[in-house]
Each structure stands twice: as structure tokens, then as C-alpha cells.
Amino acid sequence: MTQQKIQNPETQVTKTPQMSDRDFINDMLSTEKYMTASYSTALNEASNQQIYTDLLAIFNETQNCQRDLYNAMFQKGWYGLETAEQTKLQQQYQQFQGYTNQFPYGNNGMMQ
């Protein structure tokens, strides 16, 4: 079975030495991804509740911005996805299902 690409028709941009709209939005998306990862680390390490609350609000805004940029790129056909084969999905599911036996807590969150 061949993988199928999920993608909108690509909006063409002129190939020039200057940055195109695609280049700008791709740069912004990369920056937002980096920022959300960094804010996530900061949230894990925040020892003050007010700082945590403020960082969480900023994180949520940054994450929403990242999602909006991703959606814009996907709509313009600049970001595509590939479908996964059902057998590979099943294999991955079984692999990770086996890992749950190693967790100190069961599926219900209670200590076993």
C-alpha cells in the first residue's frame, strides 16, 4: 500500500533571493514552536504561583499562534501530511500498549 499525501493545492510563490510569504510564515512557525517548548520548560520549573499563572497565559497564546500559523501553511498547501498504513498504526499501538505494564500506575491512575 502506498502512502497518500494529504495536502491542499500549493500556493505558488516567486523564487527570488528575497524572503517570500512562505519563508516568513515558515520562520514564524519555527520560532513559535521553539517558544512553546521553552515556555513548557519554564512552566515545569516555575516555583511561584503568580509566575506560573502568567507563564501559562503566555504559553497558551503562543501555542494558539503556532496552531494558527500551521493552519495557514496547511491551507496554502505549504504543509502536508502523509497517511499512515493501518498495519503500522496497529504495530505502534501494540508496542506502546505493552509499555503500560511498566508504569507504576494503572490506567485508572491508582497505584497497582
In short:
With 112 residues, the protein is mainly α.
Describe the structure.
The chain is mostly helical. It has a domain at 20-80. It is 59% helix and 4% strand. It contains three helices and two strands. It has helices spanning 21-45, 49-75, 86-99; strands at 5-6, 81-82. Strands 1-2 form a two-stranded antiparallel sheet. Helix 1 packs antiparallel against helix 2. It is flat. The termini are far apart.
Q: How many whole angstroms does the radius of gyration measure? A: 20 Å
Summarize the helix and strand pattern as letters.
Answer: EHHEH
Beta-strand percent range: under 5%
Please give the alpha-carbon distance between the first and last residues. Answer: 42 Å
List keywords for this structure.
two-stranded antiparallel sheet; mainly alpha; 2 strands; 112 residues
Question: Helix and strand layout, with pairings?
Answer:
Elements: E1 5-6, H1 21-45, H2 49-75, E2 81-82, H3 86-99
Antiparallel strand pairs: 1-2
Helix pairs in contact: 1-2
